[in-house]
Amino acid sequence: MIYMSETQTASLITHELAYSAVKEALVAAISNEVTLFPVVNASGPQTGSMFSLKSASTSTLVGWKTGTYWPNNHLQNKPCHGTTVFLLSPETGELIAAVASSKVNAYRTAAADAVAVDYLARDDASVLTVFGTGHQAEYEILAISAIRNISRVIVVGRSKTKTDKFIGRLTEKGVSAEAGEAQYGCAQADIIVTATTASEPLFKAHWVKPGTHISAMGADKVGKHELPVELYQHATLFCDYKSQSVVIGEFQHTTNAPITEIGEVITAHSPGRASAEDITVFDSSGIAVQDLFVAARLLELIQ
Predict the structure, then answer these.
(1) Which SUPFAM superfamilies does the entry link to (predicted)?
(2) Radius of gyration of the chain from Cα atoms?
């Protein structure tokens, strides 16, 4: 069995690798070659702790990703989030690899956002507004910046202290960022990304201007909610995997709205943005085949 440590995977992962693998996974997800299984969300003994299991099977890749969140780990100077991908032999079911993927998971999640922006945002989109100042938001900004020419980043955060610190980290990485209120951020944005743990909408639907693309990245369990449902009657909706999106993703809050899986757009089987005035919304609930494809790419680098 191969074991890849967090140190190894963190040193090998790049936005380019993650984008390529996740794009391939999103296409595979719409084919008959992939089986995706229902997500298991559970809780640990510590208050607020949780862990999840996402699994998938193809002819060449079989396995699952487990993600953990233990909020009190910071008291021991340990990461609160943890991720590991396990791969089984398709022939025998034996465990063939365990890939520590905590940092990789942040890249993988952001890569899905980048793919959606690449295919759904206007070609001239350059102003990015991000809701959230936590662990994931920085990766979202950097992944989008790697595939689009972003001129401004507007950060909408609940805490001024955390927002200022976040902007400082972005500035150190060469990102032109500023703080802004929700309505201002929506009014200015060509692209909106929500990367929060919210359980109610972060902004009003009428604040979003025509032509905006929105990526909702935070909803991955029942009850999470970032976008106003009123937005859907004026928008074109896309997701990573529909049957999961409507159960634990942002689109659990829709009612019979037409939703297109992004793999259909990538393969040109379905249209994406129809005009410069369209509002497009992408829901990323995160699917296991993304994790398996990224892990397989990392394994290739050491074999």
Answers:
(1) NAD(P)-binding Rossmann-fold domains
(2) 18
In contact, 216 and 112? CB cutoff 8 Å: no
Instruction: Of 132, 131, 125, give the one whose Cα is nearest residue 209.
Output: 125
Closest CA to 90 of 57, 56, 53: 57
In this structure, what DSSP letter does residue 64 have?
E
Question: Which residues have a catalytic role annotated?
Answer: 65
Cα–Cα distance, 274 to 267 (Å, whole number): 16
pTM here?
0.95
| Rounded Cα gap, residues 130 and 146, in angstroms | 16
Q: 234 and 251 in one domain?
A: yes
Q: Which residues of 175-212 are buried (b: 16+ CB within 10 A; e: fewer)?
A: bebebbebeebbebbbbbbbbbebeebbbebebbeebb
Residues 129 and 77 grouped into a single domain: no
Number of domains in the chain: 2
- Domain match, 258 and 146 both: yes
Residue span of the structural domain in which 50 resides? 2-104+289-302
Contacts of 258 (CB under 8 A, 6+ apart): 237
* pLDDT tens column, 218-252: 998 899 999 999 999 999 999 999 999 999 999 99
